[in-house]
Amino acid sequence: MKNRSPLISSLLLVLLMVSPIAQADLYKWVDENGKIHYGDSPPDNAKLKKITGKVSSFSSVSVEPFVYDSKLVSRRKNSKSVIMYSTSWCGYCKKAARHFRQKKIPFTEYDIEKSARAAHEYKKLRGRGVPVILIGDRRMNGFDAGTFDSIYYGKS
Q1: What is the total count of domains within the chain?
Q2: Which of 44, 58, 85, 110 has a CA positioned 20 to 30 A from the CA of residue 2?
Q3: In this structure, what DSSP letter does residue 54 have?
Q4: Residue-number span of the structural domain to which 42 is assigned
């Protein structure tokens, strides 16, 4: 595949950038201890309130350049820092966090529904879905382990 024509490479890049977004129902409920929970699969006995909003999970992955700007993201540790903007109900976010832990990749996760500061940064980043993962000078919308590893370990 190393002799790929420029037209095919460009077409593949365009297809990756045009990522459909999958919607999931989101619910809010309070447990027996009074703790508020959010998620897409509440317990059967919970009194539910359906939440409507504009945050979705990405169903495919896109990667784009990211230029670090302290006005956008204030908590970057170094050029290899991994920062993930997520929600508690997002399956792709959970998959990404599990992958990072298994590979012993240090990362910082910000839940955009539980932290006003994270929500503000996510909005400045023009987030359209979760997860949004910042890896050095790259931004990944959605999550795929192979794509992430190629960026993080420098194989791309």
Answers
A1: 1
A2: 58
A3: S
A4: 6-152
Q: pLDDT, tens digit, for every residue of 10-51?
A: 544 444 444 444 444 556 667 777 776 666 566 777 666 555
In contact, 84 and 107? CB cutoff 8 Å: yes
- Does the global pTM surpass 0.85? no
Token pair, residue 142, equals: 């959605």
Amino acid identity at 90: C
Euclidean distance between the first and the last CA atom of the chain, given in angstroms as a whole number: 14
> Residue 1 domain-assigned?
no
Residues 58, 148 contacting (CB under 8 angstroms): no
User: Looking at the domain assignment, is residue 87 inside a domain?
Assistant: yes
Helix (H, G, I), strand (E, B) or coil at 40: coil
- What percent of the chain is modeled with pLDDT above 70? 56
> Phi first, then psi: what are they for 27, rounded to 5°?
-125, 155
d(Cα 75, Cα 72) in Å, to the nearest integer? 10
> Which residue, among 98, 101, 110, 105, has the nearest Cα to 143 in the 3D structure?
98
DSSP class of residue 130?
A: B
